[in-house]
Write a structure and sequence with these properties.
Structural class: mainly beta
Number of strands: 23
GO molecular function: carbohydrate binding; hydrolase activity, hydrolyzing O-glycosyl compounds
Shape: globular
CATH class: Mainly Beta
CATH architecture: Sandwich
Radius of gyration: 20 Å
Order of helices and strands: EHHEEEEEEEEEEEEEEEEEEEEEE
Number of domains: 1
Helix content: under 10%
Organism: Aureobasidium pullulans (Black yeast)
Pfam family, one: Glyco_hydro_16
Keywords: Lectin
Number of helices: 2
Protein name: Concanavalin A-like lectin/glucanase
Length: 299
């Protein structure tokens, strides 16, 4: 897809450090930057596994990307995790805890999202781990987010292989608050079903949700899980096939994208798992708008 996205960008692979430096120094025009990037693409000093497939998200101007039937976006990025040995720019590993409510049967254990549970090795998919055999709080899990929280509308495609161990929940979702949230959730205790949701937009509202059949081999092969969060509607796709939409409780405020694997012993996640639960993510592709970035038309 990347080759047809931007006029003037001959490739979607950037030496991000070089590009960021040129933008910050303001010594070069766009044409000069493109020439340097093109010339650098054949240089042996470039480590191709460390290149960010991005539309220069650090700049204040970027081409508007039009996706037919979807919308217009001022940012694009694709993370192919096998190319990385360090966590890529634009993403942030979570490192925080959640305290259980003693009166809430749905959350009997404390949780902790730890850095050590996010495993990235060059040549392999990214792994989000919930260690097996945990019996005491806090229950360790794994999570990462976008490094920015000003996303307003997006098309997000996650290519992942689901854990075959019961007792965790995998989430690919947008989050601003408990009333501004869109979810794709996979409960590994129920491997035949995907749960697709817009969380309730006010305390008195009802959650908008539906479920759909999961791919039969989702624990043995990779599949694309996609949601298009647009103004007034959230659409869901599995392997490019439309499976349904929600028009109520569609988020209206900017926030972050989140990916996680967790358990708290409640009925939703189940668990904690007896064995290590590993969610593998091969790639993430996002078309999105950032409210702090002004887009301009490509010519």
């Amino acid at each position: 897809m990347g080759s047809g996205l931007a006029v003037g960008f001959a490739t979607s692979l950037f030496d991000f450090t070089l590009f960021e430096h040129l933008v910050m120094t303001k010594l070069f025009g766009l044409s000069v930057v493109l020439a340097i990037v093109a010339a650098s693409s054949s240089a042996t000093s470039l480590n191709e596994t460390e290149l960010l497939e991005s539309r220069a998200a650090a700049t204040k101007k970027s081409c508007m990307i039009t996706l037919p039937g979807v919308g217009r976006f001022n940012q694009y990025v694709k993370y192919d995790f096998a190319k990385w040995s360090k966590f890529p720019l634009g993403l942030s590993i979570s490192n925080y805890g959640i305290t259980a409510d003693p009166e809430d049967e749905e959350h009997p254990f404390d949780q902790f999202y730890g850095v050590k549970n996010v495993v990235l090795k060059r040549g392999r998919p990214l792994q989000l781990r919930v260690p097996g055999g945990q019996t005491q709080s806090p229950i360790q899990g794994a999570e990462f987010t976008t490094a920015y929280d000003d996303i307003l509308f997006a098309s997000v495609r996650t290519v992942a292989k689901v854990s075959n161990v019961a007792g965790t929940c995998h989430g690919f979702f947008f989050y601003k608050s408990d009333t501004q949230e869109t979810d794709i959730e996979i409960r590994t205790t129920f491997p035949t079903t995907l749960f697709l949701t817009n969380q309730k937009s006010s305390p008195k509202a009802l959650t908008s949700t539906f479920d759909t059949k999961s791919p039969l081999d989702m624990t043995s092969d990779f599949h694309e899980y996609r949601f298009d969060w647009l103004k007034g509607v959230t659409k869901f796709y599995i392997d490019g096939k439309f499976v349904g939409s929600l028009k109520k409780n569609v988020p209206t405020m900017p926030g972050s994208m989140v990916w996680n694997n967790w358990a708290n012993g409640g009925s939703w996640s189940g668990g904690p798992p007896e064995r290590d639960s590993v969610l593998e993510i091969r790639s993430i592709e996002m078309y999105y708008n950032r409210t702090s970035v002004t887009g301009v038309d490509c010519k």
